[in-house]
Amino acid sequence: MTEQTKTRFPAPVYAAAGAGDLAYQQLRKLPAVVNVLSERAAASLRTYNEQAGTKAAELRDKAATTDFDALRGNAASVATSFAQIAQDRALAAYTALVARGERVVGAGVVEAADVVNADIETTEQPKVEAADATKEIAAATPKPRKRAPKAKPAE
Question: What's the whole-number mean pLDDT along residues 62-83?
């Protein structure tokens, strides 16, 4: 399990931000990777074409002598161990994505907080000055006197 963070965002939000940042970084490397992979694919294709006939004959011989019952029994235990390994790796990857997302979101939150604080400072100063001006005007203006009630005419 991941450790609880002391922020207002849940861990999956950070994991998503970390995954997005990781994807962005990997996409930036894509053109160079494509060149390397295309060169390797061309070299591998030449090698595989040369070895395909002999490999096919070896596999036919091996299939004829394989004990499929023993293979089925072994497959279940191997699948269980691979599932556990995959689960451990997934948890480690998720934890790494959460940590990466906290760094990405944290940096953005700090920048956004600086902008918001600067906006608050610039917008609140005129309000304070306007409030002071209103008080000064109110103090300088004489208050109207209350009129005495009119006397009732005698009947």
Answer: 86
